[in-house]
Amino acid sequence: MEAKEVIVLVKNLEQSKTNDETVLDILKTLEKEVVPTEKLLRETKVGVEVNKFKKSSNAEIAKLVKKIISSWKDAINKNKLKLRQQNAASGTASADNKSSDNKEGSGAAAAAAGSAGDGSSIKKQSKFHSTQKRSAKNDGVNTTIYNIKLRDNVIRALYDALVKESEHPPNHILQIATDIEKEMFELNNPVTADKQYKEKYRVVYSNIISKNNPDLKFKITNGDLSPHFVVTCDPKELAPVSLKKKLEEIKEKNLFNAQGATIERSVTDRFQCGKCKERKVSYYQLQTRSADEPLTTFCTCEVCGNRWKFS
């Protein structure tokens, strides 16, 4: 599916937020026909729009969104890994050619070639050792990319956060920091959404430097998490496993407590669902207006989940 077609579906998805059937049809089309690439996701913003439905009250929509985002993320990461392997292979070939003219270099080339078979060549070849604490300044990296103070400061801060304890070369870290900032910029242009841009930066940066989540920066620099995912995902998804478990326990506890105080519902066949036409409907009544006004009846279809109310 071409970018133009995806953009049309994204617009339709945005305009059909309240129509679950249409949203499901569009999501299923995107799942079947979109071949995700970083370029396509950036150009169409389809990932951002799809991700908005992750917390939909419709369980089928929420489940499908999670499935789509997960599959797209896996596809992007596989493409990146494949590209890195190709680059590593070409680098090894180049080292082999040079070794024929330089005896001293032959040992290093042979070691690189020998490591290619076990899948560890990428990490071994990309190791960068520094005698001082790593930062943009100490690595001699120029983070002035756009000559825009705010954006360049964000790139430098992200670089300094990601490079800590990393063995990846400076150009690799700089590329990731630049890509993350670019995703922030495309999601919230600081010219028109300065507050949102800064807030997104604070969330991402605080997660990266968090002492309670030391593995996050390694997942980002190793390519396990793409810049697009880091910027567009729910911040809770960046949390460490221990914190996610605690949040889930709190959520379940709150849900249990809430269920203890829910209004008792009755199921009847007196009402017909306007959506699926079934007559299995639960309802309850509340006095939402003044005492001399009739009660408001809140209905929920037990078959399709459709909700409505009347007085």
UniProtKB/TrEMBL annotation:
One of its GO terms (biological process) is transcription elongation by RNA polymerase II. Residues 85-97 have a biased composition (Polar residues). It is found in: Nucleus. Residues 150-266 form the TFIIS central domain. It holds the Pfam family Med26. Residues 269-309 form the TFIIS-type domain. One of its GO terms (cellular component) is nucleus. Residues 124-135 have a biased composition (Basic residues). Residues 1-79 form the TFIIS N-terminal domain. Keywords: DNA-binding, Elongation factor, Metal-binding, Nucleus, Protein biosynthesis, Transcription, Transcription regulation, Zinc, Zinc-finger. GO terms for molecular function: RNA polymerase II complex recruiting activity; RNA polymerase II transcription regulatory region sequence-specific DNA binding; translation elongation factor activity; zinc ion binding. Residues 85-136 are annotated as: Disordered. Residues 105-120 have a biased composition (Low complexity). Belongs to the TFS-II family. Necessary for efficient RNA polymerase II transcription elongation past template-encoded arresting sites. The arresting sites in DNA have the property of trapping a certain fraction of elongating RNA polymerases that pass through, resulting in locked ternary complexes. Cleavage of the nascent transcript by S-II allows the resumption of elongation from the new 3'-terminus. This is Transcription elongation factor. It comes from Maudiozyma humilis. The lineage of its organism: Eukaryota, Fungi, Dikarya, Ascomycota, Saccharomycotina.
